[in-house]
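Q: Could you fold this chain for me?
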Amino acid sequence: MTTEASPTAVATGPLRPQEGLGALHLFYKVDLAAWRAKSREERATARDYLETIVTAARQEPQTQVVTLAMFAPADIGFMLLSRDMHALQALEKDISASLGPDVLVPEFTYLSMTEKSEYTQKDDEYALELEKNEGIARGTAESEAKLITFRERIQHYTHDRLYPVLPEWEYFCFYPMSKRRAVGQNWYALDFKARRELMGGHMRVGRTYAGRVRQLVTGSTGLDDWEWGVSLFAHNPYDIKAIVYEMRFDEVTHTYGEFGPFHNGLPLPLKEIYQRVLLD
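A: Sure. Below is the predicted structure, expressed as structure tokens.
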């Protein structure tokens, strides 16, 4: 007799995206009344427990945790990257419960995944660009040498988008966004060539901030209410303000962009965040 598995059985092994990492942004309000209701010993134990959770997570392969002292309306924030969606979900629940019942109250959360850009330039297009702009004929030794360098650059760019190493910079900003689908302003009604040309101009603006703003765009179609999450790291908040303002004049943004709420914070160690947010 053959025994069939229960249709409700769920595999509990790793659940990994085909490519890239799961990304989760967690922004919490702190209920100070609930926190102050604990004894001094209970608060010390809770603080140590949250630090243990974060330290253990950071030791897992391809797992990163950024801890944030947030500006209002949130108080404490976390940006999490993990290759395993089970681990990501468990980490979220551990963090949420770490300081005790009702202390960390979710103010905004966002689930997405790292992804490569569909608008990345292809070999043939680059070779045509060389021929058109530099007079380097396709198939020549010079063209092939430049193509090798081009492929290495694209490979590095793609890997950096799928498996980023988050910078330890001083300022952080996150916002979700979607492309507009209004009559006469429907991004998805444009053909691929038109969308790519528009995105090319958009990316050229972004490249002028290299070294000042590090951007990670994660995809969330089917995962959350918006289509992308944008995480920005900078050494100076002025550069966040400047790049977002300048991008507003780009057609991709002013004609087709829809934006959700902005959340800003300061990447800091948990002990510093405790002093600022928990006031102990």
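A (continued): Residues 141-162 form the longest helix (22 residues).
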